[in-house]
Amino acid sequence: RPDYIKESDPFRFENGMVISTGITTIPGGDRVEAAYRIAQNNAKASIAGAIEQKLEFIFQNAEEGTALASGQARSIGAEASNLVTSSIRPHKNYWEKIATTTDTGDRVTQYKVFSTVTMPEQDFKKALMDAARRAQGKGTLSQEFAKKVDAQWDRFSGQTPTDNREPAKNQEPKKETSTE
Question: Please, which pLDDT band fits residue 123 given cuts at 50, 70 and 90?
Fold first, then answer.
């Protein structure tokens, strides 16, 4: 199986991209091309579900979770999902021919089909922020929320922030003094 297929991590951030993997299984007599479309739709649905789930994560970690109803999170998640669909691009497809045994003991052939879709992480983040701003206009979020989303982004995306600070130059280290 190619390394870009990660069943255990179907929605992830890699190298500035959001990658979502959709999976479907079809009977051996069906067309694999049709299954690619199904798997791509599953990958897109995975992005929509991840938006809602991760929005709830941000709300809770930004201390908005107790005041925000799950219906509001779904509404904002749906809004963000609508905003990201124009940035989603088909990526790669892969299929496996598998033999399996039914409950009655018959051997059948099936295809397990994988399809990945991608989108730039910045487009994904922008869609979330735009959805939050629209909801804020409806009075559902505080003025501070956009700042809190930025503060939570690295935890949200599962990435470790990098330290881009420059070391101090031409400064002598401060000497510690004791007041004892």
Answer: confident
Cα–Cα distance between 140 and 72 in angstroms, integer? 8
CA–CA dist 46, 85 (Å, integer) = 12
Q: Return the amino acid letter for 136.
A: Q
CB–CB of 98/113 below 8 Å? no
pTM over 0.85: no
Tokens representing 36? 């690619």
Those residues whose C-beta lies under 8 Å from the C-beta of residue 51, and which sit 6 or more positions away, are 77, 80, 81, 84, 127, 128
SS3 91: strand
Contact 177, 88 (CB under 8 A): no
Taking every pair of C-alpha atoms in the chain, what is the biggest distance, in angstroms? 85
Q: Cα–Cα distance between 121 and 18 in angstroms, integer? A: 5
Residue 108 to residues 30, 33, 34: CA-CA distances in angstroms?
Answer: 13, 20, 19
